[in-house]
Amino acid sequence: QVQLVESGGGLVQAGGSLRLSCAASGRTFSSYNMGWFRQAPGKEREFVAAISRSGSTYYADSVKGRFTIAGDHAKNTVSLQMNGLKPVDTAVYYCAADAVAIRSTNYDYWGQGTQVIVSS
Questions:
Q1: pLDDT tens track for 56-103
Q2: Beta-carbon neighbour count of residue 42 at 10 Å?
Q3: Sign of dihedral through CA atoms 1, 3, 56, 60?
Q4: For site-directed labelling of 67, which of 7, 31, 47, 59 has its Cα 20 to 30 A away?
């Protein structure tokens, strides 16, 4: 079992930055791929970024060059640094863990989500 708790969401103006953090408890996330997903109102949940157990990183085209995912094994956390935020980035952001999935939503474990609102 893995428990995930996100933090760091909030309201920011377009062009600003936010850093999301996901704290994992239970089995260490070195056993899992860790992903960030987001869901805007009326839309399906979509992939944002992921870091594999081996440390490889993956990004959606829409956030490449603006967002950075990183893992801290000592603290059992994974972060998502978001720069150059746009109103279209407004969504609830979810942290997820899975032994296999990378870009798909077929993750076994999910956090409760944290709201990000980007004003124009």
A1: 999 999 999 999 999 988 888 999 999 999 999 999 999 999 999 999
A2: 5
A3: positive
A4: 31
